[in-house]
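Translate structure to sequence.
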């Protein structure tokens, strides 16, 4: 007889790590589109524009991470405001690059620790 885990049993670290990982591809295309209020076609379009590259399940289905959903949601905001999709994708990429450059600049300005 197999013993089933009680619903309140603590999860294993590996499961918890995946749930906390912004890059873990946890969402199907349909669920991802629903979460950001768009269509699967929009997700395909921003994939074709190389804004995001979803991972594929063993069956070949697209899977999206929380980070990718945040990026897609930002692109959707720009498109909803009238920006063409290709331009919106480029803007999001540039915003991401700027944020990373500012973060690195801030790290370099910190005095070294002993």
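Result:
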């Amino acid at each position: 007889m197999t013993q089933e885990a009680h619903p309140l049993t603590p999860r294993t670290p590996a499961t918890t790590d995946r749930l906390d990982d912004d890059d873990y591809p946890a969402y199907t295309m349909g669920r991802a589109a629903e979460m950001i209020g768009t269509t699967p076609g929009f997700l395909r379009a921003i994939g074709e524009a190389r804004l995001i590259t979803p991972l594929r399940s063993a069956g070949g289905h697209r899977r999206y991470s929380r980070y990718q959903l945040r990026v897609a949601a930002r692109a959707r905001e720009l498109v909803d405001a009238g920006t063409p999709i290709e331009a919106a994708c480029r803007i999001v990429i540039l915003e991401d690059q700027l944020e990373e450059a500012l973060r690195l600049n801030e790290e370099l300005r910190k005095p070294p620790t002993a």
